[in-house]
């Protein structure tokens, strides 16, 4: 069975796809991440503010949800934007990037949320982050470690 989008046989999640446009993707991903951090900052504070207000009514019960809600906001943001029709977060749209599966298809929301979770885990640990970024520099398709684990690839639009 051949991949009708590219006219070539499908690839596995770990094989590079040399026919995709990945020029300058790593630098653009850094810029996109900075934009997304600003977006998530405001979304996160909106969620915290709403839970704090609701906590007054519930005598502080919803305040216990604030740590869970902030993580859910970040993962939900990735699931809805990357798993959505445009296949990119708002930062990726500004940087001219989108996310595809290794075979060139659209990622689903669960894959996008797991992709973001693995990135945040790697970014939270310096050694894991170095390994994650080193994968991007070592591979010609510029896929980072969390891309390989989820079977996704970031390409130019």
Short summary of the structure?
With 157 residues, the protein is mainly alpha-helical. Helix content is 57%, strand content 6%.
Order of helices and strands: HHHEHHHE
Compute the average pLDDT. 88
Number of strands: 2
Question: Which spans of ≥5 residues are poorly predicted at pLDDT below 50?
Answer: 1-6
Biggest sheet layout:
2 strands, antiparallel
Strand content: 5-15%
Distance between the termini: 26 Å
Strand order of the largest sheet: 1-2
Shape: elongated
- Number of separate helices: 6
Structural class: mainly alpha
Q: Please give the radius of gyration in angstroms.
A: 17 Å
- Count up the domains: 1
The helical percent reads 55-70%
Please describe what this structure looks like.
There is one protein chain. Helices cover 57% and strands 6% of the residues. The chain has one domain (25-156). Strands 1-2 form a two-stranded antiparallel sheet. It is built from 6 helices and 2 strands, in the order H-H-H-E-H-H-H-E. The two termini are 26 Å apart. It has 157 residues and is mainly alpha-helical. It is elongated and about 55 Å long. The protein has helices at residues 25-57, 66-82, 90-95, 109-123, 126-138, 145-150; strands at residues 97-101, 152-156.
